[in-house]
Amino acid sequence: MKKNILTDLLLTFMKIGFFTFGGGYAMIAMIENNCVERKKWITHDEMMDVTVIAESTPGPIAINCATFVGYKQAGFIGSLIATLGMILPSFAVIYTISMFLDNFLEITLIANAFKGIKIAVGVLILDAAITMIKKMHKKIIPRTIMACSAVVMLVINIFALNFSSISLMIVAAIVSLSIFLVQSRKGGAK
Questions:
Q1: Cβ atoms of 38 and 31 closer than 8 Å
Q2: Least buried of 42, 72, 74, 120, by fewest C-beta within 10 Å?
Q3: Vertex 34, ends 29 and 38: CA angle to 5°?
Q4: Other C-beta atoms within 10 Å of 99: how many?
Q5: CB 153 within 8 A of CB 172
Q6: What would the pLDDT profile of 124-154 be if each residue is shown by its tens digit?
Q7: How big is the chain by its Cα radius of gyration, in Å?
Q8: What is the pTM of this model?
Q9: Between 44-56 and 24-32, two packed helices, what is the crossing angle to 10 degrees?
Q10: Contact at 8 Å (CB) between 117 and 22?
Q11: How many CA atoms lie within 13 A of 5 on its CB side?
Q12: What is the pLDDT of residues 34-45, one digit of tens each?
């Protein structure tokens, strides 16, 4: 049984790692589709939690997600196998490209293909965001924090302000924690 899950973890994350362009955010939709919807390895709430944690910790978000899913399914060895499954395809592709093509993106056919891939990556990231928003708890505080964060990021991008997205996450965490503490005190005072 454990051998089957390890093979399944490896093949699933190799497929995600090989067929998803655009980095971790673009991979979130595929990870959710495979790990939550199809295989039921984790719940949607766990996917939301791991996405937030993976974004807040060092390392690429998709690799952190793969590590979590692997650990949940098969402990340490599962996390190792899932992480390798996520990393190996990208490594192999980049290594092969670097060995054989010095000016890979100068090839007209490749350059034009990557123009389309850029658009697809944007759509994948947008799809992941919309899916997460739809499945977010329908409470006013999380939705308000999300909306305020989106507006702030939009303003930062429009005016090309130098403000780290990590700083925005820290501010959102502080606001959320403050609201929780205030609500806890009100609940304890009753």
A1: no
A2: 120
A3: 125
A4: 8
A5: no
A6: 778 877 877 787 777 888 788 888 888 888 8
A7: 19
A8: 0.63
A9: 160
A10: yes
A11: 18
A12: 999 999 999 988
